[in-house]
Amino acid sequence: MLLMNTPFNPVGKVYTKAEMKKIADICIRHNLICLSDEVYEFLVFPPHKHYKIASFPGMWERTITIGSAGKVFGVTGWKIGWTIGPAPFINAMQLIQQNTTYAFCTPLQEALAQTIEEILPDMNTKDCLFRKLSVVLAEKRDRIANALASVGMWPVVPQGGFFMLANISNVEGPKREKDDKRPYDVIFNEWMMKNKGIAGAPLSAFFNDANSSFGDDYLRLCIVKDDSTIERVLECFKKW
């Protein structure tokens, strides 16, 4: 099985059509099932475009695609989404789900179904919710990226998704205590929360203990915030 994620969390990478074709070719050549995590598929910033790997020749019958209402509609606490794929895969997943969680909250399922039905007629128009959302989030992304750069935190500007990485290696921050064995991004994030009023997520948390140093120089920040929160964050950067 090949597990892929596009747009990619935490970097925000959106795979191009050519890159997706290469991944599809690998799956076919090695007879792999592809589990495609596409929970940010409607949060792709212009001019980038999302391509579903199941749409490539020879991939539908070997692909399970995962979507998320929590990510798309900003209701992450609902923990509800969908899976698309050929009947044998879906039937097997239903059997497992039936014998683990058994059922999911019916009102939330109905709410999601009605929301999708209302949105579908506008999917390919300028009035589409997802098209408007990506434009709004791209503006928030750019404002936060500029604020990060203003204090020496160089942003890894995402092509899609909820998050942005910031390189902290050139920022004058806290000194590591001699007996503090935690990754530096954890130390920096704690210092930033206490002294600057801004909270990120240490990237080292995405690695196992042996490789946590790969995340030492980065924090992950969420760009999906309401305007008032964005303004407060920008003010914190101005006072840095």
Automatic annotation (TrEMBL):
Needed cofactors: pyridoxal 5'-phosphate
GO cellular component: mitochondrion
Stored Gene3D superfamilies: Aspartate Aminotransferase, domain 1, Type I PLP-dependent aspartate aminotransferase-like (Major domain)
Keywords, alphabetical: Aminotransferase, Pyridoxal phosphate, Transferase
Span of domain Aminotransferase class I/classII large: 1-235
Keyword Transferase in annotation: yes
Pathway: Amino-acid degradation; L-kynurenine degradation; kynurenate from L-kynurenine: step 1/2
GO molecular function: kynurenine-oxoglutarate transaminase activity; pyridoxal phosphate binding
Family annotation (InterPro entries): Aminotransferase_I/II_large, Kynurenine-oxoglutarate_AT, PyrdxlP-dep_Trfase, PyrdxlP-dep_Trfase_major, PyrdxlP-dep_Trfase_small
EC number(s) given by UniProt: 2.6.1.7
Biological processes, Gene Ontology terms: L-kynurenine catabolic process
Keyword flag Flavoprotein: no
PANTHER family: FI04487P (PTHR43807:SF20)
Protein name as catalogued: kynurenine--oxoglutarate transaminase
